[in-house]
Design brief:
binds (2S)-amino(hydroxy)ethanoic acid, binds manganese (II) ion, Aminopeptidase, nine-stranded mixed β-sheet, Alpha-Beta Plaits, alpha/beta
């Protein structure tokens, strides 16, 4: 077995194998319009993990699953006393997700393990691949859940208690899958961590760049707005005497869009869920629930968006003389990635001859949590039209291979010499 320095040829990943595996993984939970619905801790999610293990088994890695369902594959280094260099992402998808969001980062990480194995390269530091549990937070309502618990940013009890729309808790779903209960998670020592991901936005494609050298992630939060009215008959109740929560929604929505416009083009405001109770076409709703996802790269503008939401809802409730509330139920503060890791990505892209640009991430990623524990950075590749969280999500095989090669070399630059 050679050390990384001794390997003459520049180690590269196998782009065809990566593409083929992305398509095979995409078949698990395939939707009618070419996307993927493989939500966290469903049987499909576990089927995807089994397929990953089938590919990984011949590589001689040690596999373990922690108490919140994170899966780790460990490739021994020449010196097992050294902290590992980790990569990873997620296999769970949105309900109308694509084949690449998250999955690409996991399978590119598998390419790193397999390329080192095939090219008989033994790094000084161990190499780890992580499959983080419930990154999307669509089935269980906390995004980047598994990495947040691993990083100590979310209590395992709070994560265990999260329930899906059918009332099944994370703990019950893990129990059903035979994942043992753990009070606290053992955090393996890490020297550095990298994650490769499709950009999920239009910038790289517009700028004709192959690689995004990601320097950080914007501030983001999810809010739940509740408005209480009174159920009454749709036909007999005059408009003037109703206690109709939709009147509040009708005032709040245009105000929210105006507030986002006032903050500027970097503001992100998304109303993703709107529910009424009892949800009957001929009953004035007694209760309205909607979610508001807010994001901005600059803290003062992010705070302005949050304050605007509170003010706009309070004013609309007062005008309608109805009761209600705004609750921030999930937040991920903005992150600046480690300069040495960012430079490792930049110099790998440069050495490999790929066009690149520095950028921040609009989407949240598990690396936001990993960065709280270890020096971290990310690598982006373009996706068609910047489309993601959409069944039509697409990326070019050549770009995906390029991102995986940058991942391989960025990891090698920190893994082959003992720290
Ligand atoms: O919402 C996000 O940014 C990520 O896809 N979980
Ligand atoms: Mn993702
Ligand atoms: Mn996503």
């Amino acid at each position: 077995m050679q050390t990384a320095q001794a390997a003459d040829a520049v180690p590269m990943v196998n782009g065809e194998r990566l593409w083929s595996r992305l398509m095979q993984m995409g078949a698990i939970g395939a939707t009618a319009h070419g996307g993927c619905n493989r939500q966290a801790l469903t049987e499909l999610d576990f089927e995807g993990r089994r397929l990953l293990m089938q590919w990984a088994r011949p590589l001689g890695c040690e596999a373990r699953v922690d108490g919140i369902g994170n899966l780790f594959l460990h490739r021994a280094g020449a010196d097992e006393r050294l902290p590992a260099v980790l990569t990873g992402s997620h296999l769970d998808t949105q309900p109308t997700g694509g084949k690449f969001d998250g999955v690409y980062g996991v399978l590119a990480g598998l390419e790193v393990l397999e390329s080192l194995h095939e090219q008989e390269i033994r790094t000084a530091h161990p190499i780890e691949l992580a499959v983080w549990c419930n990154e999307e937070g669509s089935r269980f309502p906390a995004a980047m859940m598994g990495s947040a618990v691993w990083a100590g940013r979310m209590s395992i009890d709070a994560a265990y208690a999260l329930k899906d729309a059918r009332g099944i808790s994370v703990r019950e779903a893990l129990e059903q899958a035979g994942v043992p209960f753990e009070r606290t998670l053992a955090q393996q020592p890490l020297r550095a961590a990298f994650e490769v991901h499709i950009e999920q936005g239009p910038i790289l494609e517009q700028q004709h760049k192959t690689i995004g050298v990601v320097t950080g992630v914007q501030h983001m939060c999810r809010n739940e707005v509740l408005v209480y009215g009174q159920e009454t008959h749709a036909g007999t109740t005059p408009m003037a005497v109703r206690h109709d929560p939709i009147r509040v929604l009708a005032q709040v929505l245009p105000e929210l869009y105006r507030a986002a416009e006032r903050v500027g083009t970097d503001a992100r405001m998304t109303v993703g869920i709107i529910e009424t109770y009892p949800g009957s076409p001929n009953t004035v709703p007694g209760r309205l629930r909607f979610t508001v996802d807010l994001r901005h790269p600059q803290q003062q503008h992010y705070r302005a968006l949050r304050e605007a939401l509170e003010r706009i809802v309070a004013e609309a409730l007062a005008r309608s003389q109805l009761q209600g509330s705004v609750r921030c139920y999930w937040e991920a503060p903005g992150v600046s990635f480690d300069e040495r890791c960012v430079e490792a990505v930049r110099s790998a892209a440069d050495a490999l001859g790929y066009s690149y640009m520095k950028m921040i991430s609009g989407a949240g990623h598990d690396s936001c949590n990993v960065a709280a524990i270890a020096p971290t950075s990310m690598i982006f590749v373009p996706c068609a039209g910047g489309l993601s969280h959409n069944e039509a999500e697409q990326a070019a095989a050549t770009d995906l291979a390029a991102g995986a090669n940058v991942l391989l070399h960025a990891m090698l630059s920190l893994a082959h010499t003992p720290a």
